[in-house]
């Protein structure tokens, strides 16, 4: 079973300490090895996730999911040319897109598995809130399921409004959910866990739990 190599973490640790083009070009072969490791991991992951989520295209390949390590520094105060992580984004649109999906973040000391819809556009956010309001019990069945809470701890509450969103009273019984600006869940993993022999299955376990959330959101915004 494929796993994230310890050498990949070693490369990323050294890249964090030497984030400049000269160092990167000197160690380009190590980057290519780390990238290939992520591609191989993703290919095996895709086999499993396509069985979980039928919206993932059968012809989706790892190269369409692994994100570039090169940073866009044009509008950033941080001019470091390279990311300190390798990201894997999977959805029915490949990487990115405007639909809910799954994400694996590989970074020394900061790795995590996540899913859902991060910062949806205004019309999507409105539709998601409306669907939650109309079908609250169905949504709660997903996010309050014992297995979901055991794995993720619940939905992230990091991105939320201070006040009730327009069209919803502040005393709405689920205003704490309707205030959310993102509908995501995540779980952190140590470097040792990420490099473990069973990590593919651990990630897929999380994706099985994310799928109902993504399906609920997608039905809200595509209907």
Automatic annotation (TrEMBL):
Superkingdom of origin: Bacteria
NCBIfam families named among the record's database cross-references: TIGR02453 family protein
PANTHER family tied to this protein: CHROMOSOME 12, WHOLE GENOME SHOTGUN SEQUENCE, DUF2461 DOMAIN-CONTAINING PROTEIN
Listed name of the protein: TIGR02453 family protein
Organism listed in the record: Pedobacter puniceum
């Amino acid at each position: 079973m494929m796993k994230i190599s310890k050498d990949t973490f070693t490369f990323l640790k050294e890249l964090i300490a030497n984030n400049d083009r000269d160092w990167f070009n000197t160690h380009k072969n190590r980057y290519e090895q780390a990238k290939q490791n992520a591609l191989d991991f993703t290919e095996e992951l895709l086999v499993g996730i396509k069985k979980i989520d039928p919206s993932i295209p059968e012809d989706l390949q790892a190269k369409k999911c692994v994100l570039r390590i090169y940073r866009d520094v044009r509008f950033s105060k941080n001019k470091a040319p390279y990311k300190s992580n390798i990201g894997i984004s999977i959805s029915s649109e490949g990487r990115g897109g405007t639909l809910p999906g799954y994400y694996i973040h590989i970074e020394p000391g900061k790795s995590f598995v996540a899913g859902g819809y991060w910062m949806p556009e205004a019309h999507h956010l409105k539709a998601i809130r409306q669907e939650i309001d109309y079908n609250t019990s169905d949504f709660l069945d997903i996010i309050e399921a014992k297995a979901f809470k055991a794995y993720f701890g619940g939905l992230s509450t990091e991105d939320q409004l201070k006040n009730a969103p327009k069209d919803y009273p502040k005393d709405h019984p689920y205003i704490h959910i309707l205030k959310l600006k993102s509908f995501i869940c995540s779980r952190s993993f140590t470097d040792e866990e990420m490099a473990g022999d069973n990590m593919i299955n651990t990630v897929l376990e999380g994706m099985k739990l994310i799928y109902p959330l993504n399906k609920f959101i997608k039905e809200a915004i595509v209907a």
